Fold this sequence. Notes:
This protein has helices at 2-7, 102-105, 294-297, 356-397, 401-406, 426-443, 450-484, and strands at residues 17-19, 26-28, 41-43, 48-51, 65-67, 72-76, 89-91, 96-100, 114-116, 121-125, 138-140, 145-148, 186-190, 193-197, 206-208, 213-217, 230-232, 237-239, 254-256, 263-264, 278-280, 285-289, 308-310. By secondary structure, the protein is an alpha/beta fold. 31% of the residues are buried.
Amino acid sequence: MSHFLCYGxxxxxxTRILNLRYNLLYGELPDCWMNLQSLSVLDLDxxxxxxxxxxxxxxxxxxxxxHLRKNSLSGAVPLSLTNCTKxxxxxxxxxxxxxxxxxxxxNSFSDMVILNLHSNNFHGLFPAELCHLVNLxxxxxxxxxxxxTIPSCISNISALVTINxxxxxxxxxxxxxxxxxxxxxTSVVVKGRILEYHTTLNxxxxxxLSHNSFSGQIPEKVTNLGALQTLxxxxxxxxxxxxxxxxxxxxxETLDLSAxxxxxxxxxxxxxxxxLSSLNLSNNKLIGKIPSSTQLQSFEASSxxxxxxxxxPLQNCTMIVPNPEYENRNGNEHEVDCSRDSCKHIQNECDxxxxxxxxxxxxxxxxxxxxxxxxEQIWNSTEGIxxxxxxxxxxxxxxxxxxxSDNVGSxxxxxxxxxxxxxxxxxxxxxxxxxxxxxxxxxxxxVNTGDAELAFGDWLGVSKESSNKELREEAEKKGKKKxxx
Length: 485
């Protein structure tokens, strides 16, 4: 290939299409592309080229289509590429390219229709410069290391806002190339499958930002993309709620917002998405009822799992009214009093007929309050126990040095438990205190409840910390006693 490019005959300089896709070519790309300045299409997809992109590619000022997908190219994209202002298709997918997109995207590619950079190592923020690419129909930045938020100016991409299929060609054809000489194509992931579009490529409208580190809220302006057919924002760190006007995206066929941190309810407007054929909202923090529509209820339960949602295709919403005075003896957070008569206990906290999700939230809050009260009772009860134990210790601590010295050399070095000369060891004392608390809980008839166990655990955690301190102090005293002996 190097010989052809760098030492070819003059006839090769007039070449308009160089299509070497699906071969077994390897090695680095030669840096003498200035010899092919008439080139309109360069397709090197699915080979094994390595190394960096040559700077001389920037001399291809007539280039309209550049395909380097599925190679082993690395390094940053050269800034010289911004000289290729006629580019309509740029496909660098499935390589190991790095760098910040903003450094070379710029405002140079006003005719760009397809930008496919998926599965590389690009980093940095979502480039606001992309908002100037008003003709962009396919934007695939998936599986990179991009971060930040989606700029609201994304709604400036007019090709994703409106579409008029009247008189439109199914294919994307370069202006200097006959349609029968080269069929433009690209591969994207739709509905979890890799699809390759070619004869209908010009009808596709897609944005895929999945598998990155984008965060923040999904801007409401995204819902202005009325021509968009596929939107994939999955496996990021988006927060906030699903945009309220998402139902305005009347052309959407595939919507994937899974594996984020979205919360709140699913907007009712989503029931207006009559063209929707694939939906995934799983693994978020959504709550409430799934809006009623023939479209939404037709999806599998997997589209909604790992949320707090109800209504088909998940289980029906259980209409319950929790009674805060109901004592749950099994420690089951989902067990509540479902009697409608208990509504009078709720007042403004939870009206009759609310779904089970909100009911459980209310019950959990009441249990936390009850647990805090119970823990306080335990603490108050243990003060008396600990005071008695400390009084037993005070006899030993109050013994005079003479009394200690009188014991030196005595055959009976071990003193009876509880006597002034021999206090109860701290570890045994703590265990004894725990047993007394257990007895107290049994008398209160709450020892089997989850609340009591958790309250006891709270006390025990602090007691262990306190006992460790006392054990250290006791060890120091023993050390001093050995020195006297």
